[in-house]
Amino acid sequence: MQTMLGVIGGSGVYRIDGLEDAAWVAVETPWGPPSDQILTGRLDGLPVAFLPRHGRGHVHAPAEVPYRANIDALKRLGVTDVLSVSACGSFREDMAPGDFVVLDQYIDRTLGRAGSFFGTGCVAHVSLAHPTCARLSAAVAAAARTTGVTLHEGGTYLCMEGPQFSTLAESRLYQSWGCDVIGMTNLPEARLAREAELCYAAVAMVTDYDCWHPDHGAVDVAAVLRVMAGNAAHARSAIAALPGLLGPDRAPCTHGCDRALDHAVITAPDRRDPALVAKLDAVAGRVLKG
Ligand SMILES: CSC[C@H]1O[C@H](OP(=O)(O)O)[C@H](O)[C@@H]1O
Ligand SMILES: Nc1ncnc2[nH]cnc12
Fold first, then answer.
1. How far does residue 73's CA lie from ligand 2's centre (Å)?
2. What is the pTM of this model?
3. Burial of 85 (0-12, 13-18, 19+ CB in 10 A)
4. Helices (H), the chain
C-alpha cells in the first residue's frame, strides 16, 4: 500500500505551499460536501491532500464543520495518514504561545455533534483508548523538531463546544482536570478517523492562555490570528518535512489504526440496513463488503 498524507488545516492555515501538480478538487461524499475543495498534489514525491477545516475564508463554525464528509472525502481520495493542525489555548505555564503540542488524549465537552459514521442498521464500537496514532505522531514530532519550535510530545486537549470561548470558571475547571490545551474541533475528527481506519495525529499550536492566566488577558480572535501568523510558517515547514519521514511504502500500522474495524461491527449481517451500508462504502467497505 502507498502512503498518502492528508492534512487538515485549522484556524489560520488555509493552504499549504510547495505542492507539485497542485489542483483543488471537489469531492462528493454520502455525508454531504466537505468543508471546501481539497488541494491535491505531491510533496517530495508523496501524494498529499490538504483540506482547510473551516473552508477557505473560514466559513464553517467549529460545531458546523462537516466532520464526517471531511474524513470520508480524505479516505475516498486514498489518504492513509491524517495530520490535523490546530490553534489552541493552553492551561500550562510551560506550554506557551508559539509552542507546538503533539496531542495524545482528548476530553469531550461538545454537544451533540455527529461523531460516528455508524448508527441504527449498522452499529460499531471502535477503541478510542489511544485516539491518536503513536506511529504517525512520532513522525510528526520528528518533523516539527526540524523547524526549531518548542515541542511538547503528548498532551490532553479539551474539546469544547464553542463558538464562545470559555468562562473563567470553566477554564479553571479544565485546568484542574489536568487538561493541557483547549480547542473546539479535534475530537470529532479523531473519532471519525479511527472509524475510517485512518491514522490520525494532531499538532496543536498554542496561541493563548485561554482566560485563566493572571498575567495575560482573556483570549480573543485577534490574539489567536496574531500568533498563528507567526506559527503558520513553522507548521508549513513541519508538513514539508513529513513526507521524507513517512516514506512512500505503507506497512500495516504498528498502532493498528488501519485494522480498527476488525472486531468492531456488531450488527448481524442479515440485520444491516443496506442504505447505511452503502453510505459506508469508503469508510468501512473493507469489513462490510462480501
Ligand atoms: C479562531 S479562534 C477559535 C477557533 O480556533 C480553533 O480552530 P482550529 O481547531 O480549527 O484550529 C478553535 O478550535 C476554534 O475553532
Ligand atoms: N482558548 C481557546 N479556546 C478554544 N479554542 C481556541 N483556539 C485557540 N485558542 C482557543
1. 26
2. 0.98
3. buried
4. 67-77, 134-145, 168-176, 186-195, 221-246, 274-279, 281-288
Ligand nearest to the CA of 171: 2
User: Domain locations in the chain?
Assistant: 5-288
User: Tens of pLDDT along 22-61?
Assistant: 999 999 999 999 999 999 999 999 999 999 999 999 999 9
For ligand 2, whether the C-beta of 91 sits within 6 Å is no
**Cell reading at 290:** 462480501
Collapsing DSSP to helix, strand or coil, 208 comes out as strand
Write the pLDDT tens digit of every residue in 230-260: 988 899 999 999 999 998 988 999 999 999 9
Burial of 69 (0-12, 13-18, 19+ CB in 10 A): buried
Chain center to CA of 237: 18
Please give the distance, rounded to the nearest whole angstrom, from the Cα atom of residue 58 to the centre of ligand 1: 10
Closest ligand 1 atom to Cα of 62: 15
Pocket lining: 12 vs ligand 2, CB cutoff 6 Å: no
Sorted by sequence, the CB contacts under 8 Å of residue 127 that are 6+ apart come out as 194, 260
The closest-lying atom of ligand 1 relative to the alpha carbon of residue 183 is 13
Evaluate whether 102 touches 202 at the Cβ level (below 8 Å): yes
* pLDDT at 285 > cutoff 70: yes
Most informative mutation of 100, 207, 216, 228 for ligand 2 (most atoms within 8 A of CB): 207
Residue 31 three-state SS: coil
The phi, psi pair for 104, rounded to 5°, reads -135, -5
Cell numbers standing for residue 36 = 471546501
First to last CA, the chain: 21
Write out the binding residues for substrate.
Answer: 184, 208-210
CATH classification of 5-288 is 3.30.450.40, yes or no?
no
Reading the block at residue 229, the C-alpha cell is 501568523
183 CA → ligand 2 middle, Å: 5
